[in-house]
Amino acid sequence: MKKKISTKAYEGIFLKITPLYFQHLEYISIIIAFGYLAAISKSILVSLTAVISWLFYTWYVMDLFWEKYPRALINWFVVHIIMLPTLFIIGGLIIVSILTQIPSVPIPTIRELLKAVLFPWL
Q: What is the 3-state secondary structure (H, E, C) of 75-116?
């Protein structure tokens, strides 16, 4: 008779063998996409949505791991505050470089991308 692996055990193994950024890759990709859309549309609403989604992602991770790793999470939070604009810019630029191959797609300049990501209220 086969032993049934519990879901909890599987999740524990998954957490040990998979780095955090792979587990949350979908959140990061959505945030990067919002950063690009903010640059294309030049819309304050899209920019604010990107920032809010990042804050929810940060809150989710902090809430998930706070009891076990408080010190590591404080470091993680600081790094991500610095990395937020970087993620938007790099992700946006990668998407822009791919889309330059397609005609009739509006491509933002680096200045527009920086402005939309760093200063959404302008």
A: HHHHHHHHHHHHHHHHHHHHHHHHHCCCCCCCCCCHHHHHHH
